Amino acid sequence: MSHSTALPAAPDSFDFLVREEHHVANGTLLGFWLYLMSDCLIFAALFATYSVLSQSYAGGPTGAELFDLPLVALNTSFLLFSSITYGFAMLQMQQGKLKGTMIWLAITGIFGAAFLGLELFEFYHLIHEGATPQRSAYWSAFFTLVGTHGLHVTFGIIWLITLLVQLRKHGLTVPNRRRLFCLSMFWHFLDVVWIGVFTIVYLMGSMS
After folding, report:
1. Alpha carbon distance 150, 62 (integer Å)
2. Lower CB density within 10 Å: C or N end of the chain?
3. Any idea which UniProt keywords this protein has (predicted)?
């Protein structure tokens, strides 16, 4: 003898208990701060590894022999100027000027792309001179640290381009303003990390 259980009829409409905005106030900013702290730990580990291996040349070329400090200084200025132009973009955002915000963001992206271009040129030069990542522990640590920072800049530029598309499509909405602020923290964080790279890797490496 079989028993059949009747399923309840589907309601014609749904009544949501929570009708207000689901996004927790300042939740994105808190989460992004936590992400930046985790990134700090990653770079701290890379800096520590580089410091330990900074004399492990295995008979190969040293940084002092191959570094082109004027080129690296020019590259550093590109990234520092990009941080200034991003600050101008944030000022335009606070004034509600969409066009000005997008123009300064585009200039920031150009400076970031110039930084990456010079960094790739430097990598090509070093590899051409025999300083490949597998040449010694020193160069492995160098390419890992500097390359990881370069990857962060690359993702930052992709994020910036995506944000430009969102701004063009939706304007200076509350979510887009929040995204601009998060990218601002990320971009300035990369500047601070690069200052550490320039000082510890290039300046101190050239004096060793």
Report:
1. 21
2. N
3. Membrane, Oxidoreductase, Transmembrane, Transmembrane helix
Which pair of tokens denotes residue 74? 């020019």
Please report, as a single letter, which amino acid is at residue 150. G
Residues 6+ apart with CB under 8 A from 106: 164
Chain-centroid distance of CA 181 in Å reads: 13
Look at residue 34 in the predicted model and tell me its pLDDT: 93
Mean pLDDT by 10 residues, the chain (208 residues): 54 58 68 94 97 94 95 97 98 97 98 98 96 96 98 98 97 95 96 97 89
φ and ψ at 197, to 5 degrees? Answer: -65, -45
Query: pTM for the complete prediction?
Result: 0.86
What per-residue confidence (pLDDT) applies to 73? 97
Hey, what are 176's tokens? 């887009």
Tokens of 133: 């990542």
pLDDT value for 19: 60
> Which structure tokens are listed for 60?
């190969």
Looking at residue 55, its amino acid is Q
Closest CA to 192 of 144, 143, 147, 152: 152
Task: Report residue 38 CA to chain centroid gap.
Answer: 13
Q: Tell me the residue ranges of DSSP E strands in 58-127.
A: none
